[in-house]
């Protein structure tokens, strides 16, 4: 399904993007749902002030100066999968707080089919909240063992957290890419706060 919006009673109905997903991902970064700016740009985190690609540039070389397709290939090569919890939802503008009528993506299936996954990271509180509500109840026992870690949102709406603090928090993904992090017996009930 392609991303896009439809107007429905004063609220816009948003459809998300397919995942960025290589053959053996080690981490899955979940957002909530693409913003209007991302949909218009035709890419994840397409708002010019969203810090996601800036951070990916610093961490794995997939910075905003590169073409989008190249960034996606770098994520795949580094073992990073990228998706949103919601496949479809309605909301006012790009405000996650106003999300309604959420239809989740097939994350349980992705977790079952990609047993190389070691950790799930949430790009902000809303992604984690949606995961807990719509995805966790549908996970199999093996997938429930994946640690879940909330990171500060890269959205420009989350400007109260300084960039340096976001950088420190997001560096945690490197431990799960390059280290010996693996599936554990600890379920991602309450993720550590960054």
Under CATH at level 1, the class stands as Alpha Beta
Q: Largest sheet, described in full?
A: 4 strands, antiparallel
How much of the sequence lies in strands comes to: 15-25%
Strand order of the largest sheet: 1-2-5-6
Order of helices and strands: EEEHHHEEEHEHHEHH
Helix-and-strand structural type = alpha/beta
Helix segment tally: 8
Based on DSSP secondary structure assignment, what is the total number of beta strands?
A: 8
CATH topology: Uracil-DNA Glycosylase, subunit E
Radius of gyration: 16 Å
What's the mean pLDDT score? 87
Question: Outline, from the CA principal axes?
Answer: globular
List strands and helices in order, with pairings.
Blueprint: E1 4-8, E2 11-15, E3 27-31, H1 36-41, H2 52-60, H3 68-78, E4 80-84, E5 86-91, E6 100-104, H4 107-113, E7 119-123, H5 125-135, H6 141-144, E8 148-151, H7 163-170, H8 172-178
Parallel strand pairs: 3-4, 3-7, 7-8
Antiparallel strand pairs: 1-2, 2-5, 5-6
Task: Give an account of the 3D structure.
By secondary structure, this protein is of the alpha/beta class. It starts with a strand and ends in a 16-residue tail after the last helix. 32% of the residues lie in helices and 21% in strands. It has a four-stranded antiparallel β-sheet. Strands 4-3-7-8 form a four-stranded parallel β-sheet. It has a single domain (4-178), classed as Uracil-DNA glycosylase-like domain (Uracil-DNA Glycosylase, subunit E), CATH 3.40.470.10. It is built from eight helices and eight strands, in the order βββαααβββαβααβαα.
């Amino acid at each position: 399904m392609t991303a896009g919006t439809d107007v429905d009673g004063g609220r816009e109905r948003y459809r998300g993007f397919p995942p960025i997903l290589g053959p053996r991902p080690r981490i899955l970064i979940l957002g909530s749902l693409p913003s209007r700016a991302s949909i218009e740009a035709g890419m994840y985190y397409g708002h010019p002030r969203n810090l996601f690609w800036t951070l990916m540039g610093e961490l794995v070389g997939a910075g905003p100066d590169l073409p989008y397709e190249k960034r996606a290939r770098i994520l795949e090569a580094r073992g990073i999968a990228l998706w949103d919890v919601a496949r479809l939802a309605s909301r006012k503008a790009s405000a996650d707080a106003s999300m309604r009528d959420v239809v989740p993506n097939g994350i349980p299936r992705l977790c079952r089919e990609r047993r190389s996954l070691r950790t799930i990271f949430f790009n902000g509180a809303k992604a984690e909240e949606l995961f807990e509500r719509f995805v966790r109840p549908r996970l199999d026992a093996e997938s429930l063992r994946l640690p879940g870690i909330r990171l500060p949102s890269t959205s420009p709406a989350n400007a109260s957290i300084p960039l340096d603090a976001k950088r420190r928090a997001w560096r945690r993904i490197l431990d799960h890419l390059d280290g010996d992090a693996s599936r554990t017996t600890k379920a991602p009930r309450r993720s550590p706060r960054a």
